[in-house]
Amino acid sequence: MLSDIDVEMKRRGIDGLVVLGDTTLGNPDLTYVVGGSLPRGGIYLKRVGQEPLLLTSNLDIHTARRCGRVKKIMTYSDYDYEKLMAQHGRAEAYPRFLQKLLGGLGIKGKVIVAGRNDLAWGIHLASRLRSLGTEIEGEAAPTILEYARETKSTDEINEIRGVGRKTAHVVNSIVDILSNVKRRRGHLWIGTKRATVGLVKQEIGTLLASENLTAPEGTIFAAGGSSADPHNRGNPSDELAEGKLIVFDIFPQSDSGYWYDLTRSFTIGRADKKIRHMFDSVREAQEASLEILQEGLPADEAMSRACDVIEANEFRTVREVYEGKTREIQSGFSHSLGHGVGLTIGERPYLAFQSKDPLRSGQVVTVEPGVYVPRVGGVRIEDTVTITKQGCRILADVQKMLEI
Amino acid sequence: MLSDIDVEMKRRGIDGLVVLGDTTLGNPDLTYVVGGSLPRGGIYLKRVGQEPLLLTSNLDIHTARRCGRVKKIMTYSDYDYEKLMAQHGRAEAYPRFLQKLLGGLGIKGKVIVAGRNDLAWGIHLASRLRSLGTEIEGEAAPTILEYARETKSTDEINEIRGVGRKTAHVVNSIVDILSNVKRRRGHLWIGTKRATVGLVKQEIGTLLASENLTAPEGTIFAAGGSSADPHNRGNPSDELAEGKLIVFDIFPQSDSGYWYDLTRSFTIGRADKKIRHMFDSVREAQEASLEILQEGLPADEAMSRACDVIEANEFRTVREVYEGKTREIQSGFSHSLGHGVGLTIGERPYLAFQSKDPLRSGQVVTVEPGVYVPRVGGVRIEDTVTITKQGCRILADVQKMLEI
To answer: What's the CATH number where A292 sits?
Structure first.
């Protein structure tokens, strides 16, 4: 939550926090503190215990005001950035400008400079600021902002639920289309066209657009053997075929910057016994982990629960790797159970063996066990849920059925 | 160009270059050296004069091989990252892992760590690496990778041209739709719906999807008064009206990571004399700057040329701000002439007063003069061009006409 920023600054002995970037795109920390998108980014400065200050370009100031999260917003020109550029040149003006701003806010102690930017430039910036007398600190994960962003406010959860509702529309529409494929001359047809992965992906794109969503990281729609690779996005020329596994993993982002993550796996027509067993095992693993998720549960226990179920169904799991028994598994449950979702599609907390931290109320995580069998295909079932005091709540309801 | 990396490493006395990130999304330097997208990112390491090494997760190794740019690709597990995590914990394992990899490649001199990542974390990483004995250097702009990415290979230009062709399709389709609006009961209609900015934006989204493009930074379709703010994206509820200015600025990205940038400004139906004068001035300014663009021209001279024309047409320009005569201008040509386009939508070179560097063959830049008059609206005309020895070439042809 936003209010964690001050709490964590105090706890960690940090006097000043700077979040910066030349765009909010792909800069979740900056989007978070600004409360929206700024095409040309900005500089957010906060002294512990005080209201923050946001600087933007003249072109973005109206947009910044509409974002509404920071009350005091000024332009670079208001603080004579141009004069510093004329005096010191472009490269040297920036650290001097920051130095001047920090001084103006009375920040004298440890300062953190955050935001997603080029590291080579950031490391240079830190060393220039240090020469100018600022005490710059680095942060090991979780940074103050990662920690704050980890628990979502009611507004944020509603925003994510909204993205979930739209995502569910897209998935339901695609399932509708697939339930209406025609069988003709040994192929499956959508309307007058062969049912290929590429055609379905185009439909997904159109549906996303009509919901005002984008998919900056693409969409996984993998059919048959390629679904056995959890991150294969699907080969456009692959034809859909009856009884073959399809993994449909969709992770769109809305204008607000928030994401949603949802996976369904199915076959068109009848699935054989082997596939049915994969599906039932994954579904049982998801239900078992959903059942125990709640505030206070160590994250790795959810992962462990999912592995228990999958192992009881005679599939291998990544626990073998974690326990050092093997380097990698060639089939079975080969990834972690889940990850946080918010202004990024992969953030804290992680439902994985390495994560011992207890879950916190307001976290939003995916729960996505999977089983992959080379040459056969994969089954993954994924929902995005929010952690509560008593349990967890799925943020968008979509049917889970194997055969469509 | 990719080959500039080695040249610049030598010239700047750098022994090792590391480019890293937990995703290639929003990480153009990593996308560039990898030659494609890796959902979970990776670590690219290069010793000066030697072939690079790329490490990815087990899940992404097949994708990384398909990217094809790096020949030697391994997984983290191949270098026992898990063991380091078990020994040192997650946070400390990473710098130790990098240290081990750098040692393995025989890198002993200055090392640059690049890639778009959280600065607070990066500054911590740099200080840990320094304690472990690595000589980490920062970079003022232009970094080695910015410099390399500034000039595009023939393949890259073809890729950008491809995005341009698809972008042109979208723009032409929207112009078609707008030439067929109906006038009824004092409103404009598209089919049976009122012609609003929101409706047009939905069409744009659908068209982008059908071209397999996304618009991660949105699209500007600003009508009437809101077009007077160069970065107003357009108010969905605004109705289109005859004779009012519309600025349509579209900047989509393709799967490959490359962007295109194109703007047209027009009125539906007749434009009045004042608007016609704005349009003609901007068009003349664009033509005049396109005429002089070529290898060797100092970038600021193109900017200056556009201002000459716009000032001769009695509009104010940002030159007044650059020359310190005023802090900002309230109307006229209030931004720079252009910026580079590639794996980002705003990169070097900049066609601006501050940029004295001569243009280089293979650069891809926008040429986008504009004139904005509060309450009336804006006109901006923008094409993306590549710089050549003899001049420049527009990468996608789209008609420039005021009235549609």
So the answer is: 3.90.230.10
Mean pLDDT by 10 residues, chain A (404 residues): 97 98 92 93 97 93 92 94 89 96 97 98 98 97 96 97 98 97 95 95 88 88 95 91 98 94 98 98 98 98 98 97 88 97 95 94 98 97 98 97 96
Report residue A227: phi and psi, to 5°. Answer: -70, -10
The answer to whether B352 touches B300, Cβ cutoff 8 Å, is: yes
Q: Which residues of A touch B229 (CB under 8 A)?
A: 59, 62
Q: pLDDT tens digits, residue range B276-318? A: 999 999 999 999 999 999 999 999 999 999 999 999 999 999 9
Q: Is residue B49 located within the same domain as residue B195?
A: no
pTM over 0.80: yes
Shortest distance between the Cα of B389 and any Cα of chain A, in A, equals: 28
Task: Provide, as residue numbers in chain A, all residues whose Cβ is less than 8 Å from the Cβ of B82.
Answer: 321, 324
Domain boundary among B129, B149, B169: B149
In a domain, residue A402? The reply is no
Q: Could you say which of B133, B149, B165 is where a domain stops? A: B149
- Residue in B63, B139, B210 nearest the CB of A231: B63
Structure confidence at residue B267 (pLDDT): 98
Residue B377 pLDDT class (50, 70, 90 cuts):
very high
* CB proximity list for A96: less than 8 A, separation 6 or greater: A84, A88, A132
The answer on B317 and B176 residing in a single domain is yes
Cβ contacts of residue A184 below 8 Å, gap of 6+? Answer: none
Flag whether pLDDT at B9 surpasses 90.
yes
Tens-digit pLDDT profile for residues B351-362: 999 899 999 999
Q: What is the Cα–Cα distance from B3 to A253, expressed in whole angstroms? A: 36
Asked if A124's CB is within 8 angstroms of B119's CB, the reply is no
Q: To the nearest whole angstrom, how far is the Cα of A120 from the nearest Cα of chain B?
A: 5
Mutate to test the interface with A, among B65, B90, B113, B123 (most CBs of A within 10 A): B123
Q: How far apart are CA A369 and CA B383, in angstroms?
A: 47
Q: Which of A119, A146, A229 sits opposite B117 (nearest CB)?
A: A119
Contact A138 B117 (CB under 8 A): no
Residue A55 burial (CB count, 10 A)? 26
Show the tokens assigned to A383. Answer: 């929902």
Contact list, B27 vs chain A (CB under 8 Å): 26
Q: CB–CB of B141 and A90 under 8 A?
A: yes
- Smallest Cα distance from B357 to chain A, Å: 13
* Residue B93 lies in domain: 4-149
The residue of A116, A118, A208, A330 whose CB has the most chain B CBs within 10 angstroms, and thus the best one to mutate to test that interface, is A118
Question: What does the pLDDT look like over B221-248, one tens digit per residue?
Answer: 999 999 999 888 899 999 999 999 999 9
Contact A37, A24 (CB under 8 A): yes
* Nearest-by-CA chain B residue for A211: B202
Split into its structural domains, chain A has a count of: 2
**Are B346 and A59 a contacting pair at CB < 8 A?**
no
Q: Give whole-number Cα distances, A150 to A141, A153, A157, A339, B23, in Å.
A: 12, 10, 12, 11, 19
pLDDT on residue A277: 98
Q: Are residues A278 and A238 in the same domain?
A: yes
| Strand pairing category for A42-47 and A16-21 | antiparallel
